[in-house]
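Need residues for this backbone.
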């Protein structure tokens, strides 16, 4: 991961739109886009909310490349982030998780086998969870949805007993 987070955001938005969202001038965005200026650190959370790939890049930079290394693990899989492709991938991962869960007969299982089985099940569930997180970001970006706002609204609906 070596792309500038601002470049990622500008792939889908104009400099003026980004400037307005970050409360900066359009010329400041233009200078940052050409490397003559840095986006202020306090703007990173807003920048991250504009594009999930930018969020990952910022997280990778802040973690000294740790997040980027995790993403590089998947680079050999030639991941297609198109929503339809992600749906197919999710279905496949959920099928694997369902098959693993289908073997869940712990009562008569040897403790060592039980532990190994649970570890495998947890890995399958984590695969599904990671993919769902990626899909949420992809869909939010694709359709211009404020994911943080949506999740806050969902949390409030749960608190109000509406969900």
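Answer:
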């Amino acid at each position: 991961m070596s792309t500038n987070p601002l470049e990622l955001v500008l792939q889908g938005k104009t400099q003026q739109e980004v400037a307005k969202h970050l409360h900066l001038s359009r010329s400041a965005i233009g200078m940052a886009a050409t490397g003559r200026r840095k986006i202020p650190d306090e703007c990173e959370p807003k920048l991250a909310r504009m594009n999930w790939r930018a969020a990952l890049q910022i997280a990778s930079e802040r973690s000294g490349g740790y997040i980027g290394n995790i993403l590089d693990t998947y680079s050999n899989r030639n991941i297609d982030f198109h929503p339809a492709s992600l749906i197919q991938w999710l279905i496949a991962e959920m099928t694997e998780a369902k098959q693993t869960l289908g073997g869940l007969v712990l009562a008569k299982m040897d403790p060592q086998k039980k532990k190994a089985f649970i570890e495998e099940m947890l890995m399958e569930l984590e695969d599904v969870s990671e993919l769902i997180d990626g899909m949420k970001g992809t869909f939010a970006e694709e359709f211009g949805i404020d994911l943080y706002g949506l999740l806050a609204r969902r949390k409030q609906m749960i608190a109000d007993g509406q969900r």
